[in-house]
Amino acid sequence: MENSNRVPFDWFVDPLKLGVAGAYTDSEDNPLAWQADAVCAQTDPEAFFPEKGGSTRDAKRICSGCDVRQQCLDYALANDERFGIWGGLSERERRKLKKRA
Question: What cofactor(s) does the depicted protein rely on (predicted)?
Answer without folding.
Answer: [4Fe-4S] cluster
